[in-house]
Description:
Layout: E1 4-5, H1 10-15, E2 20-21, E3 25-30, H2 36-51, E4 55-59, H3 64-71, H4 79-83, E5 87-91, H5 92-98, H6 106-120, E6 124-128, H7 130-137, H8 140-156, E7 160-166, H9 180-183, E8 186-194, E9 200-209, E10 218-224, E11 227-232
Parallel strand pairs: 3-7, 3-8, 4-5, 4-6, 6-7
Antiparallel strand pairs: 1-2, 8-9, 9-10, 10-11
Helix pairs in contact: 6-8
Bound molecules: adenosine-5'-triphosphate and magnesium ion (MG).
Amino acid sequence: MTEKIKTGVEELDVILDGGLPRGHAVLLAGSCGTGKTILSQEFLFAGAKEYDEVGIYISLSESREKMISNLEGFDFYDTKMMEQNKIKIVDITQDARLMNLEPLTVNGVMNMISSIIRDSEAKRVVIDSVTAICNSLGNEKNIRDFLFELGLQLEYLDCTTLFISEVPPMEFTYSVFGVEEFIADGVILLREMEDKTGNLIRTLQVIKMRGVNHSRARNAMEITQAGIQLKPMFEL
Ligand SMILES: Nc1ncnc2c1ncn2[C@@H]1O[C@H](COP(=O)(O)OP(=O)(O)OP(=O)(O)O)[C@@H](O)[C@H]1O
Ligand SMILES: [Mg+2]
């Protein structure tokens, strides 16, 4: 049986019957501000602290400096991990520009991502976002080829990966191009909903996780200084 690894969010490990299967590539889908970056960073810090695994965050949407200043207030954030290069945040938009790779090609992006991962010897990887990469790849065939190839490369490199997918708010969709969720080994969906008093509450739901007997319930999700916390919806 595949080893399960801790996600950094205790309640999510319970939902996943012990954690994420090592080597899985999981689509983390949500609209803006739903907590995708915070959840992903918690996942990387858990890997670095509990498993001594290097984690890498490949960002196409937010600069390294801004991301760090947004994370500094959280208990899980640890400057030491950054200093020791256990957690790396790479702004790939700048790299892409420097390397004159625009417009992006499947091979160009693949080579860039896999060389970043190989050089860092990362075991946990976050790509923020596959939507941004897919946007610059153009047609569906390129997108399929890219995601399929990327999945294989990451498996070969023995990485457990979160692919961030940016979806429109208040919609029950996992991806923009409709192919991402089929290629991923799992789908975790972050959404928001209004409660009776009109407050927006965050929710997390595991839609699919290959090889895992997981709960498919929608959970209430809170972001606090202690990180992400999940509760059953009926406790609200
Ligand atoms: N210290 C904190 N305590 C509680 N909530 C916070 C804290 N810091 C940020 N948040 C909440 O988290 C949200 C941002 O989370 P995050 O950056 O992970 O979202 P995201 O899904 O990555 O967004 P985007 O699509 O814009 O990248 C903020 O809008 C805010 O509501
Ligand atoms: Mg984000």
